Prior knowledge:
The chain is an all-alpha fold.
Amino acid sequence: xxxxxxxxxxxxxxxxxxxxxxxxxxxxxxxxxxxxxxxxxxxxxxxxxxxxxxxxxxxxxxxxxxxxxxxxxxxxxxxxxxxxxxxxxxxxxxxxxxxxxxxxxxxxxxxxxxxxxxxxxxxxxxxxxxxxxxxxxxxxxxxxxxxxxxxxxxxxxxxxxxxxxxxxxxxxxxxxxxxxxxxxxxxxxxxxxxxxxxxxxxxxxxxxxxxxxxxxxxxxxxxxxxxxxxxxxxxxxxxxxxxxxxxxxxxxxxxxxxxxxxxxxxxxxxxxxxxxxxxxxxxxxxxxxxxxxxxxxxxxxxxxxxxxxxxxxxxxxxxxxxxxxxxxxxxxxxxxxxxxxxxxxxxxxxxxxxxxxxxxxxxxxxxxxxxxxxxx
Length: 376
């Protein structure tokens, strides 16, 4: 009977958390790594085998990854879930949050239906190391082509965001924030916000940055802790404003393009194809900037990953989970931490950088793995 050691749980858990968000396919790596190491790893961590404890282990990792994503985007999910319920209450879809809620639901339907029907068949047929290596190369080609043949609309969207970043304005206007949120009431230059965060000597008033009165947080002579707290609030406010603005841009793409973007997630059923990667490429093809496409892909990933874990939670609580629950806990903790750190890194990375390094990695690693597995 196959088993999962704590070393295997640690390595796979960390790889799952990192590669789930990086556009390099977590499933592909979870299939390839055991196959390349061989021995007991290939026996214990065989995703294509029915009634394997590895399936129960993967369930725990998926749930942990989804929880990490929800923690990172918790403010956004509160807005979006609130938008869903207000749209039901008001029987309309008019605000950014309401539109985002229904776009995410629409984009999740195709992969949900296909996954329920064909997930087992895809896993058994394509969950083999050599096939995962081949599809990893295919994933690299998709990422490279996505960057090489970007549409003029997507490039223009990137240029617009870059111009905004250089000129400094936070594109905020009255009504751009959700009701009751003092996030983007005024157009405050980034430089002013940054300066206020550092010196604490400025506050945001109805007309923009204004001097703080003596004795206020950050005023000369004020405690350093007060200055630090003021800077943190300014940074969180700026981050929330930019997140909302990104959602506002995404919400304009329409329902059919969203359905196309969501349908691209079906390709991730092939071990080696990255869900986030194909969603980003499809989003850019539909005119989104790289940064907005990345953020939308992460938001779309959360319900899919969570549903994949929850629907198979019986594997973890049933006989398949016997004897490995300690390993599941360890692997899940590492997976959650890896996912959280990865999304923090990638949200900043895609502001200025491309998918090309990931494309090269997938093609080189996939080719090397294919050669090795073919002659081994």
